[in-house]
Each structure stands twice: as structure tokens, then as C-alpha cells.
Amino acid sequence: MIGNIELLSRLVLAALLGSVIGFERERLNWAAGLRTHMLVCVGSSLIMLVSAFGFADVLGEKNVVLDPSRIAAQVVSGIGFLGAGSILLRGEVVRGLTTAASLWSVAGIGLAVGGGMYTAAVGATIIILVILAGMKPLERRFISVKQQRNIDLLVERGSVSLDSVHSALGTGSVRVKQFIVQQSEDDPDLDSVQIGLSRATDAEFAMIRARLTAMAGVRESRNGN
């Protein structure tokens, strides 16, 4: 059995490592942010401590055999309900998969800290942070740009929704991968709509832009960045 100071140190370290990952998600305003990641990491670390040391007083009893990994293993499958809660489906647009994966990874970090594998926990935290924060600019520059065509619309406030975009494009058209609506900086009565589409040829893109421009309430359209 480890001492109380070591036990508390592992929980504190789990909270710190979880906060590092959670801060990156909080910065992007995801539902599972700083506190959620910290709680997942501390909770999984505590479960690992209970699994490894919580039954030490009965191990000496006759016919008592315990598997210290049995309780901790439930974290891997049990964390799925939190991950599912962070995934959003809006029409054909799925958001939150990366956040769900980060929650699952943070649970692994907590288990590692609870098991005393500090080097693995810190190393995994650094690697995950690089993946979340460092890879995104590269992904946008070299992958997303090639796979996505963007259109920016200036529309009357509340006149354009994801459903109306799908209706204008029709069945069998390209998929809408991103749909963002925010108030126009120049006119509070207008909305700025950013639409990201799956890969399309120049001819298809021109036809799609014409359809979107012809929608009711659209004042202006231009190619997005």
C-alpha cells in the first residue's frame, strides 16, 4: 500500500495533466472542456488507485484472489458515455469526434498516473497536446484545403439555415461539411454564413454557388478562404 502523500500526489498530477488537454478543448469552446477533462483524469486515476490498492486488507484472507486490473478496465469502456455526449450530429455534419477521443485518451492518462507510470502519463499528455493543437494548422493547410470548398454568404438575419441549404442543393449533391452562422461585423441586421462543402469540380462548385446565391434572403456570395 502506498502512503497518503503519494496517493494525493498522483491525484493532483492527474488533475494537472487533464487540465493541459482540457484547456486546449476549452479554448475552442467545446462542451467537454477544462473541468470535464480534469474530472475524467482524476476520476480514472482514483479508480486505478482503488483497483490496485483498495482491497489490500482482504488479500490475506483465505480463498481470496483479486485481479487488480479488473476495475480499472471498466474505465476504458465506461468512458464511452461521456464521449458520446460530446458528439453532435447536425444534418450530415458530425462534430465532436476529436473531443470524444481526447476524453478517452485523458482517461488513459489518469489510469497511468494512478498506476504510478508517470513517464508514460506525461509523455502521452505531450503527444496528445501536439496532436490536438499542433496538427490542426497542418491539417487545415495541406488536407482540408484540398478536400473542402468554401462559400461565404451575406444573408438577412435568420433567413438561412442548414435545412434550407440542403433544400437548395438538392439530393445527391455534395455534402455540407461545415456550417457556421454569426452576426455580420458590418451590419447587425445581416448574418455571415460560412459553408464548407466536400470536394467538388469547378463546374459543380459554380452550380452550387449559383443555387445558394439564389436562395431567399441572400445578399452576397463569395468564395471562402
Description:
This protein has two domains: 113 residues, no CATH class; 78 residues, ACT domain (Alpha-Beta Plaits, 2-Layer Sandwich). The model has no long low-confidence stretch (mean pLDDT 81). The radius of gyration is 24 Å and the shape is elongated. The chain is 57% helix and 17% strand. The protein is built from eight helices and six strands, in the order ααααββααβαββαβ. The chain has a four-stranded antiparallel β-sheet with strand order 4-5-3-6. The protein has a two-stranded antiparallel sheet with strand order 1-2.
**Structural class designation:** alpha+beta
**Strand element count:** 6
Number of domains: 2
What is the H-and-E element order? HHHHEEHHEHEEHE
Strand order of the largest sheet: 4-5-3-6
Number of helices: 8
Q: What percent strand?
A: 15-25%
Please state the overall shape, judged from the principal axes of the Cα atoms.
Answer: elongated
Concise synopsis of the structure shown:
This protein is α+β, with helices and mostly antiparallel strands.
Protein traits:
2 domains; two-stranded antiparallel sheet; Alpha-Beta Plaits; 225 residues; alpha+beta; 8 helices; single chain
